[in-house]
Amino acid sequence: MLKFLKGVVGGSGTGVKDLPYNIGEPYASAWGSWVHYRGTSKDDGAPVSIFSLSGSNANDGHLVAGRNGVKRLRTVRHPNILSFLHSTEVETLDGSSAKVTIYMVTEPVMPLSEKIKELGLEGSQRDEYYAWGLHRIAKAVSFLNNDCKLVHGNVCMASVVVTQTLDWKLHAFDVLSEFDGNNEAATGPMLQYEWLIGSQYKPMELSKSDWAAIRNSPPWAIDSWGLGCLIYELFSGMKLSRTEELRNTASIPKSLLQDYQRLLSSTPSRRLNSTKLLDNSEYFQNKLVETIHFMEILNLKDSVEKDTFFRKLPNLADQLPREIVVKKLLPLLASALEFGSATAPALTALLKMGSWLSTEEYGLKVLPTIVKLFASNDRAIRVGLLQHIDQYGESLSSQTVDEQVYPHVANGFSDTSAFLRELTLKSMLVLAPKLSQRTISGSLLKFLSKLQVDEEPAIRTNTTILLGNIASYLSEGTRKRVLINAFTVRALRDTFSPARGAGIMALCATSSYYDASEIATRILPNIVVLTIDLDSDVRSKAFEAVEQFLQLVKQYHEKAITGDTTGAATGISSIPGNASLLGWAMSSLTMKGKPSEQNTLTSSSTSAPIASSISNTSSVTDDVNLTPVRVSSRSDLTDLADHPPSPTSTDGWGELENGIHGEHDGDKDGWDDIEPLEEAKPSAALANIQAAQKRPVSVPKTQVSNSRPKSSLKTSKDDDSDLWGAPADPAPRSTSKPSTAKASRAVDEDDPWGAIAAPVPKSSSKSMNLKSSADDDLWASIAAPPPTTGPKPLSGRGRVTKAAAPKLGAQRINRTSSGM
Length: 820
Description:
Keywords: Kinase, Transferase. It is built from 29 helices and 13 strands. By secondary structure, it is α+β, with helices and mostly antiparallel strands. β9 (160-163) and β10 form a beta hairpin. α10 packs parallel to α12 (322-338) and α12 (322-338) crosses α13. The N and C termini lie far apart (112 Å).
């Protein structure tokens, strides 16, 4: 006989000191004389079930049978049989008498009768759940009868318990015995403890104790009868009280009725084997049974079958009992994803099932799996995680994101797939608020700097939008260094018009972070030039932005007059932190990563903008409406390379042109090398000249035909300074009539080049011995002088050009400009 550890302790049996488990409240029902308690482990608090059986002495019949049940349960292992954890037998003193108690600890389970009441299933969902449960119990009985040659002896509702995952499991092994039908010498009872079985559950041969007939019957004969009793109790909802009640088949499903009658055959040899019951294709073929069965043998399925199954699973889950989906299917699905047996579409089903959980359960059952999946090398899994990050991102803790999630997500920034790069970029809108400043400055901004010069225009555009949305999570120093450079030097000069529009919107959305000096010297000059952009949408945004920033500067001016300069240029109180102000520009990339310029791109209408406006607390400032960036059509994108240049040429970017090419692999975040766009302020005369050079030259009428003396072309350094200092015409060195000079200036007052043109030569100037045929040639005045050697002087010949006079002045200016 199996020896159990015995200990003598004071008090009741529920206060056992050597039992490493805490005994809780009992359930209302249990099999036989056992008492079923809730319990927890003293080590980790894990839930367990504790069964106790007490007797007056160690030789009590119930205790002897109980010891047999503990031994059998410990040695027989099967997925559909209750899992044994621990057992002990203790003797306690109850007054003057001794009391012996057996404690058996198992996995946490609940009596089937109580679980059915708790679930409250009805209709087809109830029938599907019962079919699945019976399928589990029939497998356990088949294992005992056919594989182990054991007879359970008392299969009924009381001998079935339900786990936390709603699996049905068989227990109550006190009567369990070996089937000795092949032993001809055996004459005694085959079931030593058959007296524990209720008379209503005994088949006719067992009621008569006809052991010869029992030994001549198949091993499954007694337990098949028990399965019939279980089916009756299950569908009738009542505990069997008399054997005659089994004839009432009104509550039995028609698809199961024939098998039910064969299980309860009066002839033991004709009773249906439990294995044949499992082959009942009609009753056990339902959505729930097939779904769970597929999940349990998932490793045996090929990739095509898996992919098809998981694509249908989200819709199928809506049709299954909610409790079963959450407690049974969800753990199976999470385990399959963690160990790589499930394909990427399973992630969609996991997140949908997880949405039915409470916040606490979601953190325990779903989030750990998701965090582990970020380390997966399967690109499809990574894409799925990023596509659905808005469903679970808010539930992730900041520490988890910073330490476990982001290091894996960041690999997507450098992925060869443009589609994955774009998804990684968009995921930062959810993850960035949970990142530490060290991670943002040391890692995230480096990647965003590279994405702003990505080959995909959609990625460049959305990078600008992301920067505008996460600006509130940057430190003040980082904002000063990054935002203006990223939006003006790169975004506003991008060849892709939606990227320029996104830069304007981002500047407006982050307007509260700039002071008056930055707005006036670095932002407005870059925005104003876009008011003549080729794209109409960009022009509209530029005009709105100019008005907004001019209003900010005006408010600063008004405050400066009143002596209140606090908040310098933060006249508009934007949404706190300016967070979530911009919607994504587009989502048009494919897995192939082809450039998006090849197709007509439109703004993503399915993704609602994160926000649409900036609130304005100032009564004098108009509201700025921030809609998602619109991607222009082909007609708007014509000759993008010819968009107006920036007003400055010394932006500190070296060979970086239009913010499209260039690498930033250094330790800095990508924007440190950009210096503020501060230029040497030109004098009024130089500004006038530069403006004149950008306008077309009008051809003035020729006033004179005589050449100018050679000496008049030579001007001292001081004379040049006087020329650039004022636009007026200098007096010619040769004698000339003032009235002639005035007439020259009056010829074409609208000619911008007239202010810097050379003075008109006088007819009294010394002749250079030009040929008479060239008297009307204006280029003769600058012809080379005749050589001092040689037999014949070389007279200059000029090309006939009516615009020679203005050209002469322009040449002189160019020389002087290059000298400066």
